[in-house]
Amino acid sequence: MPMENEKGLAVYGTKDFALGFMLAGVKKVFITEGSPETEMKSLLADQESNVILLEDEVLEGVSPMRKRLVENSIKPVFVSLSKHMGDEALRSMVRRSIGVDLWK
Question: Domain of 49?
Answer without folding.
Answer: 8-98
